[in-house]
Design goal:
Blueprint lengths: L2 H10 L8 H31 L5 H4 L5 H36 L4 H16 L2 H11 L4 H27 L2 H9 L4 H31 L11 H10 L7 H30 L25
């Protein structure tokens, strides 16, 4: 067993005991019951869908029309565009606010703290509506501004916590070498903090992606708004169900892709050089020791 494997085993068992035979049987029973309940719920949903004739050809033929497909693709493109703008601006705003919260100047620190606490506590929908209605901003800028203010304030706390999680000795050693504060932040603290912050940052971007669906409330033609337009023009009962069955997997797929990326990043961070075991070659006859003789 390698040192790295032993370290991983000790770390995984540090907070809990290894389950015994009775506990394993109990966990297996819980798993079987949970799986059965999930299958029952899925079966009930499928029964309701078949009972209301949601899989008939008449309800799915309209989605073969080129106009409906183009409308969905345009809505998906608008969703991704709003998400891209909001992601970049949220990261930039979060970095600025985090820098302000760690400033040595008290007025700057108080102002940054006030902005972070206010925008983090304010509901996203309220901010979007205020910007759209009161400030008379166009739908896309209003949506992006609301998402940026909220997610940027959350990311500011993520950045600040990540920077403060770096050992104080790193900062003190950098100052002892004569580095300025900006250099310490740029070349010493930030690179080490990014490895710890990246999974949380990506998880927050998943929230921003899901919140782009709020754009349909201010008539922004994003993916959900396109589905609403399609459902309102279909002339059969319960037209929203087939539309939701098309839109939901795409939303879920995009969020799962970002979540998978966050998990992949977190897994890579566990193999960083600070915890990776170093393989030392065995000593051979005739090997010289430092300051010694062969």
């Amino acid at each position: 067993m390698t040192a790295h494997t032993l370290h991983g085993d000790l770390e995984s068992n540090a907070l809990c005991d290894i389950p015994g035979p009775r506990a394993r049987r109990r966990h297996f029973l819980y798993g079987v019951v949970s799986t059965a309940l999930i299958l029952l719920v899925l079966g009930w949903i499928l029964y309701l869908l078949f009972d209301t004739d949601q899989f008939t050809a008449a309800k799915w033929t309209p989605f073969e029309y080129k106009g409906i497909q183009e409308l969905l693709l345009r809505g998906l493109g608008n969703t991704l565009k709003a998400f891209a703008y909001a992601s970049v601006l949220s990261l930039a705003l979060g970095a600025v606010l985090a820098t302000g919260r760690m400033s040595i100047h008290r007025p700057v620190r108080w102002l940054a703290t006030l902005c972070v606490e206010f925008f983090r506590a304010m509901p996203v929908l309220v901010m979007i509506f205020f910007i759209f209605v009161a400030l008379k901003v166009q739908p896309l800028p209003a949506l992006v501004a609301g998402l940026t203010l909220y997610n940027g304030s959350v990311l500011a706390e993520v950045f600040r916590t990540g920077i403060n999680s770096v050992e104080k000795g790193q900062r003190e050693a950098a100052y002892a070498l004569g580095m300025r504060k900006t250099q310490v932040m740029t070349f010493v603290l930030a690179p080490q903090a990014v490895r710890a912050m990246l999974p949380t940052i990506i998880s927050q971007l998943v929230v921003a992606l899901k919140d782009t669906s709020l754009g349909y409330l201010i008539t922004y033609e994003e993916f959900l708004h396109a589905g609403k337009l399609i459902a309102s023009n279909l002339d059969y009962d319960l037209p929203f169900i087939p539309v939701v069955m098309i839109i939901s997997p795409i939303y879920i797929g995009m969020c799962m892709l970002l979540s998978w990326f966050a998990t992949w990043v977190a897994r890579r961070q566990r193999r960083n050089p600070k915890t990776e075991a170093v393989t030392v070659a065995p000593a051979e006859p005739g090997t010289a020791l430092p300051g010694g003789r062969t």
